[in-house]
Amino acid sequence: MAEPDIEVLTTQLLKGDRRAAAKLITIVENDPDAVKRVISRIYKNTGKAQIVGITGPPGSGKSTLINQLASYLRQKGRTVGIIAVDASSPFGGGAFLGDRIRMKDITTDKGIFIRSMATRGCKGGIARATGDAIKILDALGYDIILVETAGAGEAEVDIMNASHTTIVITVPGLGDDIQANKAGMMEIADLFVVNKADREGADIVVYEIESMFRFTDKRGWKPPVLKTAVIEAIGISELAERIDEHFNYLKENDLIGERLKRRVEMEIANIAKEVMVRELEEIRKSEAYKKLIEEIIEKKTDPHSAADEIMMMVKARYIEK
Amino acid sequence: MAEPDIEVLTTQLLKGDRRAAAKLITIVENDPDAVKRVISRIYKNTGKAQIVGITGPPGSGKSTLINQLASYLRQKGRTVGIIAVDASSPFGGGAFLGDRIRMKDITTDKGIFIRSMATRGCKGGIARATGDAIKILDALGYDIILVETAGAGEAEVDIMNASHTTIVITVPGLGDDIQANKAGMMEIADLFVVNKADREGADIVVYEIESMFRFTDKRGWKPPVLKTAVIEAIGISELAERIDEHFNYLKENDLIGERLKRRVEMEIANIAKEVMVRELEEIRKSEAYKKLIEEIIEKKTDPHSAADEIMMMVKARYIEK
Predict the structure, then answer these.
(1) Could you give the domains of chain B?
(2) CB contacts, 8 Å: B257 with chain A
(3) Distance from CA of A61 to the nearest CA of B (A)
(4) N or C: which end of chain B has fewer CB within 10 A?
(5) C-alpha to C-alpha distance for A25 and A211, rounded to whole angstroms
(6) CA–CA distance from B80 to each of B46, B67, B106, B132 (Å)?
(7) What CA–CA distance (Å, rounded) separates B264 from B127?
């Protein structure tokens, strides 16, 4: 395969070429050395899209909700990018047949771009790669980008922090363990969705979430709790309205810049860590490193003193460049 | 409080002073700048202890098993260090009253040293701090060190990889989700324990684990699956025997050095990452960093180009030192 020409691809992207977008996302996933060349060429053209993060445990109906929401937004004439960072998502290839069939109606539409991120084998952090994929769809000119994650690890929180609006989905009847796992996400949610709201216990879940915010002194945005039954498309239009309401709230209160700053700070910290990890990997191949390991084992030095020497090697490498 | 004198404390430690050990562990948890001074002074005196990692989900009886195992080893005349890296562990302060009472008989014994690691607020990685705590108890002269973790995150896998023998505990009747979460641990287990073996389904769990290894072509050590009922102290003596059997297997096959190498490589990678993260934190306070963030927001530069500049700042800082 010929080396993809980043200059050509980014030019095509900025003209609205979806295939160029797909190729560039593959590059930012797999080729850390090329990422800077991609992003530095398109960064000026980002910042127009509305970014919505959607998270919730497996079985909460997350993918169906995104499917319905995307269809609804398309009916309103908006272009929609979907990025799935969930290995178990139907967008991510882990589909039930039923999900795939339901998705069919949106996959033939040119105003929708769907992409799953490779959660395994992605060179560099998945949060970093997802942030770059968002920038690519933003530069492509799409109006709204829906980012789906599952779980509540550090990477997922980082991904959600890159959004304008973060939606946490839950369903009645999940075990206490799973509920507790969402704790990290509770703090960053701008909107809650209780899906499968026809199930027993839905009102209790709504009440529990609302209670969490009842006594907070937080002025400003109080996360609303919406009920949906996404398979029947119940609650989707209200959800879309609330998403825009939150986005408008950010704009009216000059908070878009604050969110952008939060995202940028997180991004450069992640990028710097990634650069560091890659340099460490390079150093591990060197003779000097192998010698250092031997010296620790022979107790001529200790791991902490050795780490200092490795930091010196990292820095020496960089200065050579 | 006066600055603790590391030279005095390490001298006392090497003479077998338990209080010095406790103080030094607090230092390696809380003061990253002092860690190197502590470890470089004692590293020559490490390498004698037998290190056993024990992991399993909450409710598997892990802490009771460790309690019983420690009592048994004491009866055999061996000194035992216990390090708990599990926030929900009774050793970690999250005890049920019953557990605390059961623990009483071992806490008055001077041949046992119990310590829980602060999983929150630990400055630097918990895996790094735990590795250093192990070295301190090793240098104190304890015969065997039991390290308890819960969960199967990256830190827990690193901690288990620092052991000579890794034990994974399970119980019949856990949900499929929880079983699946153990997947990462399955690969590193040297010994399996099916606790609460009087419960229905215990033999099925034993069979399932044994099946995983039935067709592996792996010559050498095949992880045995033991049944215990730790509240009644059933299976403890056999467990102790199997732990020593595995340790002897490592020694007879010249694998102790290999495990040490694995541990050392992981340690220096973690230390180097920690040093890097701390340097990033320092840089975040600088005016140059704030200016860079502004420039990204104004789209004069992009996050990837900025990260490069930050790497240069990290390196410049180091050279100044």
Answers:
(1) 47-253 (3.40.50.300), 270-320 (no CATH)
(2) 297
(3) 18
(4) N
(5) 41
(6) 15, 11, 10, 17
(7) 12
pLDDT in tens, B58-71: 778 888 899 999 99
Residues of chain B neighbouring A36 (CB-CB closer than 8 A)? 302, 304-305, 308
Q: What is the CA radius of gyration of chain A?
A: 22
- Across chain B, mean pLDDT equals 83
Q: Residues B88-113: pLDDT tens digits?
A: 555 544 333 334 444 555 567 889 99
**Nearest chain A Cα distance for residue B240, angstroms:** 28
Contacts of residue A304 in chain B, CB cutoff 8 Å? 35-36, 39-40, 271
Q: Which two tokens stand for residue B259?
A: 């495990």
The residue count of chain A comes to: 321
CA A53 from centroid of its chain's CA atoms = 7
Q: Which residues of A36-55 are buried (b: 16+ CB within 10 A; e: fewer)?
A: bebbbbbbebbeebbbbbbb
Length of chain B: 321
- Quote the longest CA-to-CA distance of chain A: 70
What is the CB-side half-sphere exposure of residue A38 using CA atoms within 13 A? 31
State how far residue A194 is from chain B, nearest Cα, in angstroms: 22
Quote the minimal CA–CA distance from B307 to chain A in Å: 5
By percentage, how much of chain B surpasses pLDDT 70? Answer: 82
CA–CA distance, B71 with B233 (Å, rounded to integer): 10
Instruction: Please tell me which of the candidates B273, B293, B304 has its beta carbon nearest to residue A36.
Output: B304
Residue type, B307: A
Cross-chain Cβ contact A268/B44 below 8 Å: no
Rounded CA separation B315/A318 (Å): 8
A40 vs B contacts (CB less than 8 Å): 301-302, 304-305
Say whether A276 and B311 touch across the interface (CB within 8 A): yes
Q: At CA A81, angle to CA A80 and CA A83, rounded to 5? A: 145
Element (H, E) at A147: strand A144-149
Structure tokens at B171: 């119980």
**Ramachandran bin of B192, using left for φ above 0, alpha for ψ from -120 to 50, beta for the remaining angles:** beta
- Token look-up 């960072």 returns A85
Residue B66 CA, distance from chain mean position: 14
Q: What residue ranges of chain A have pLDDT lower than 70?
A: 1-3, 86-107, 119-124, 151-153, 174-185, 215-219, 317-321
